[in-house]
């Protein structure tokens, strides 16, 4: 190719051909690469042989001394040294663990519980024989028992009932009313009782369902000077007259309190 070569000279032609000059003849053969590492990098541009100045692991080029974790190794750690990849996996201590976590490198199976002649898996919940009011749970080889929680009741204490064999109290139906309670002091009127709550014009009756029904009395008869009887609702216009604080009977005459020369009479009409 127009270039003189000395006898015994060696050189590389394009296409990774290794040539030598022997007795005026040129002998060529494919370059033979001796790669002394397990994960060499591809040959650089213009070169023929892979290089051990880094590592190619799972299709990813790693620099010399690079520390990394493989894609499927979880907690395995690898290092690139002179084209070789060395990986180490953590040594997990023997035994079990109470609460395995996916983030932990060492996976383990929680210990089972042996309780009263039976074996329970981790996390199992069970009740004691003959005692449904106690709930037990197996946690990493240990059994923890506690009372079964009861729901909140919205009835007063005197209406709560705990039946035989029951763990939690229940609300009883309130008893049928036997009368009417008027206040917190426990005053009760029997069904059908009629009374006045303090106003003589108002009457109340105790209903069969325990409720109280009240009604006012409307006074129809009116007169200018009626007699008001204590405890009676409507004024009385037929018994006499009330004048200036005094009571006079029908047809009774009396001097006027405003003018002693005037004489008054009570007339019932």
Automatic annotation (TrEMBL):
Q: Name one GO biological process term.
A: cellular response to virus
Localization terms from the record: Secreted
GO cellular component assignments: cytoplasm; extracellular region
Supply the InterPro entries for this chain. vWF_C/EGF_Fibrillin (IPR052080), VWF_dom (IPR001007)
Question: Does Transport show up as a keyword for this record?
Answer: no
Cytoplasm keyword on record: no
Q: What keyword terms does UniProt attach to this protein?
A: Glycoprotein, Secreted, Signal
Q: Provide the protein name.
A: VWCE protein
């Amino acid at each position: 190719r127009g270039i003189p070569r000395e006898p015994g000279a060696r050189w590389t032609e394009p296409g990774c051909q290794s040539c030598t000059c022997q007795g005026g003849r040129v002998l060529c053969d494919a370059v033979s690469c001796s790669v002394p590492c397990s994960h060499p990098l591809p040959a650089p541009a213009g070169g023929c042989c892979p290089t051990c100045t880094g590592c190619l692991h799972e299709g990813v080029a790693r620099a010399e001394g690079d520390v990394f974790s493989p894609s499927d190794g979880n907690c395995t750690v690898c290092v690139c040294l002179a084209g070789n990849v060395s990986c180490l996996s953590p040594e997990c201590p023997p035994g079990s663990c109470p609460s395995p976590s996916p983030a932990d490198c060492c996976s383990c199976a929680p210990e089972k519980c042996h309780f009263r002649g039976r074996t329970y898996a981790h996390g199992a919940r069970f009740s004691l024989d003959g005692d449904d009011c106690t709930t037990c749970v197996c946690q990493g080889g240990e059994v923890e028992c506690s009372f079964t929680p009861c729901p909140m009741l919205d009835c007063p204490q005197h209406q709560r009932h705990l039946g035989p064999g029951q763990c939690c109290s229940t609300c009883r139906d309130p008893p049928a009313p036997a009368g009417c309670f008027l206040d917190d002091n426990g005053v009760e009127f029997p069904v059908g009782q009629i009374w006045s709550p303090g106003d003589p014009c108002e009457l109340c009756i105790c209903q069969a369902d325990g409720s109280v029904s009240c009604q006012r009395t409307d006074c129809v008869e009116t007169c200018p000077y009626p007699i008001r009887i204590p405890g009676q609702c409507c004024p009385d216009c037929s018994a006499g007259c009330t004048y200036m604080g005094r009571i006079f009977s029908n047809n009774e005459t009396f001097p006027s309190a405003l003018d002693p020369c005037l004489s008054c009479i009570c007339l019932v009409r």
